[in-house]
Structures are given as C-alpha cells and as structure tokens.
Amino acid sequence: MLHVQSKGQSKGDTKMTLLQKTAVVTGSNSGIGLGVVRELARAGANVVLNSFTDRDEDHALAADIAKEFGVEARYIKADMSKGDECRALIEKAGTCDILVNNAGIQHVEPIESFPVDKWDAIIAINMSSAFHTTAAALPGMRAAGWGRVINIASAHGLTASPFKSAYVAAKHGVVGLTKVTALETAREPITCNAICPGYVSTPLVESQIPDTMEKYGKSREEVLDMLLERQPSKEMATVEQLGGTCVFLCSDAAAQMTGTTLSVDGGWTAL
C-alpha cells in the first residue's frame, strides 16, 4: 500500500497511510470519477462520491464500495453548476484530505452557433466548480497539516480541437487554477496537480461506439482508429490507470510534485 506523510512525521516515518485519509471526488457515480474512487478506496482512503442526482442506486453504490474495500463511503448530492452547492459538498463531507475535481460535461459545436447556455454550463461545471470546492477544502487541509488537490483536466487543457470552445477554455482554465493553487500552498504540506487524460475507456464512450459504427458503416476497429487519430498509442487509457495516478499523487513520492500536469494520453500531447 502506498504511504503518505503527515505533518509532524519525520521524512523516514511512513506509518501513516491512506487509511487515515478522506477523499472527496466530484462527478463520481460513473466513468473516470468512479474509477478514481475505487482506486483511492483500494488504497485505504475513506471516500465521498458525488453527482447531481439523489437516487437509491447512488447511495447503494457507495455502500457497495464500503463493503468491497472495507472503508467508509458516502454519497452526497451536489450540483456542480452551482457554486454554493460545490462549497456545501465539502462542508457536508466534514473532512476532505484529498480533493479530486473530476465533474465535467461536453458539447461540440462551432463557436458562432455554440449555445450560450451550454457554454455557461460547461464553464461552471468543468472549471468554476474546481475553484469553489478548492476554496472550501483548503482551510481544512491547512488545519490538518496535509492535503492533496487533484484536478482532472484533459489533453484539451494543453492543446485544442475545433468545435470544443467551452471545453478547451474550461480545461485550460483548470490547468491555470492548478498552478495558482500550487503557488499559494507551496510552503505547506499541500500539493495541487492536474491529470490530463486523452481518450479514456468509460461506459459512456463504449456505449457510443456501436451507434458510430452503424452511422458510418464502419467496423469497431475503424471507429476506434477515428476516435484515436490523435492518440499515438491507439489505445484508450483506463479508469483504473487514472485512479492509480491519483493514488500516486497522494504518496510521499509525489510530495514535491505540485503545480504540474501529468499527461495520461497515449502520447497525444507529444505530437
């Protein structure tokens, strides 16, 4: 199990582990967020799941994770498009040693016809929510003498594609917010980093492949070649790999990593 060091420990003392940490992961009842929750729980962290719904299955999902990994797990509803609910999520969590800002949505359309409501929603959910949750979490991390803020950005936080103006702008903003957060906490045992995935194999992506195959009359392999045109590995990352990257960022090995981006994109941004 990976170890983390907390305030008051010598650098050679690694008795503290994620067993004593609580992680809040936004947008985490499916996809990347759920993968991150599972890997943090596997490493021993108590976890708080979140989305904008409040269904029985959301709470059952948390209960299943608690049972599987032997940790505490809760589900808290909060709409990440609303700043007050973002901040309330952290308050309701009670403890937030690890904050993973993952919530996000997408819309693809040319700038001149891009719906204003879609722009506003993407900026709010993909970028502004990270500002609100971070602002709410930092005082507690400072009081505890340890903290990790991990922002799930994107390869589109480092580069761009046409017709994704709001998403690209928001993810570039998340990378900038990551750097500012790191600078403001640089003299403290708190780090802030951004993970920048390319294409990731999630249930949502997988569910779209058959429709795309039918629409264009192409095989699965041909559709994947289309999707992964900019990803040199020609393979999607997995949610487990992204979760493992988050666990690494919580370890002592990453204690001097702050304000940077980690690309998990199969070489996309190397082009």
Automatic annotation (TrEMBL):
Pfam families: adh_short_C2
InterPro entries attached to this UniProt entry: 3-OHbutyrate_DH, NAD(P)-bd_dom_sf, Sc_DH/Rdtase_CS, SDR, SDR_fam
Origin superkingdom: Bacteria
UniProtKB keywords: Oxidoreductase
Record-level Gene Ontology MF annotations: 3-hydroxybutyrate dehydrogenase activity
Top-rank EC class of the record's enzyme: oxidoreductase
Alphabetical GO biological process terms: monocarboxylic acid metabolic process
Keyword Ribonucleoprotein tagged: no
EC nos: 1.1.1.30
Family (UniProt): Belongs to the short-chain dehydrogenases/reductases (SDR) family.
Name of this protein: D-beta-hydroxybutyrate dehydrogenase
Gene from which the chain derives: bdhA
